[in-house]
Amino acid sequence: MTAHLKIDFVSDIACPWCIIGLRALEEALVRVADALDAEIVFQPFELNPAMLAGGQNIGEHIAEKHGSTPEQSAANRAMIVDRARDLGFTMVMTETSRIYNTFDAHRLLHWAQIEGGQAALKHALFTANFTDNVDPGDHRVLVDAATKAALDPVAAEEVLRSGRYADEVRAAEELWRARGINAVPAIVINDRHLISGGQPVEVFEQALRKIAAAG
Fold first, then answer.
1. Alpha-carbon torsion 173, 174, 177, 179, what sign?
2. How many C-beta atoms surround the C-beta of residue 175 within 10 A?
3. pLDDT-above-70 percentage for the chain
4. What beta strand segments (E) does 72-122 contain?
């Protein structure tokens, strides 16, 4: 019998390890399709909730937040870009890249879940942020991502303009923090099993098979 898993993928589109983790998880799910199927729900987490409109230079931000030198920051970016490339995702990260506010993106993702297009929008937003290097806090960028995800752009624009789902997103963020999630990606399976970070495909595959076998 095929097992069914519920996967809560707690993440932020400003987090490069989140797209790495997502691509690896999706590849692992393909590999274990003989044993299980899964429903992924994307849950909100803001790495930088106080980030101002227009964002901040990535090197400046990392230096302020983690104390990294320009050399350390550049080396880390290169490693992340390589990991993403290995998983088929094109990531463009340079010394001129920026970190942006993502709250409105999370509101739109909440709406997209209701509409049945959350996964497609999540991927479109990662592409906008990391491949196209455009501001995912800009409503025009968000509406364009919704269009690419085959969602109604007029409805998406209305959601953004109205401020809808702000309370729901904040409540979800607080819920996951209350459950001990303070770093992303955090992959919570069947409300019991936690896999943290952008793990390799093999790590996800092994964990998924073990959880499915345990019932």
1. negative
2. 13
3. 100
4. 98-99
pLDDT (0 to 100) of residue 2? 83
Both tokens of residue 155? 């409805």
Give the per-residue pLDDT at 22.
98
- Ordered alpha helix ranges (H), 97-165: 103-115, 118-126, 139-148, 153-162
CB 209 within 8 A of CB 25: no
Are the C-beta atoms of 196 and 30 separated by less than 8 Å? no
Closest CA to 213 of 36, 24, 38: 36
Condensed to tens digits (0 to 9), the pLDDT of residues 35-80 reads 999 999 999 999 999 999 999 999 999 999 999 999 999 999 999 9
Question: 100: which 2 tokens?
Answer: 């942006």
Between strands 56-57 and 98-99, the pairing is: antiparallel
Please answer whether residues 122 and 13 qualify as being in contact, where contact means their C-beta atoms are separated by less than 8 angstroms: yes
Amino acid sitting at position 166: A
| Tens digits of residue pLDDT in 148-168 | 999 999 999 999 999 999 999
Return the ∠ at Cα 11 (arms to 6 and 16), rounded to 5°. Answer: 130
Question: What 3-state DSSP class applies to 29?
Answer: helix
Residue 1, both tokens: 């019998």
Prediction pTM value: 0.96
The residue among 42, 158, 44, 143 whose CA lies nearest residue 101 is 44
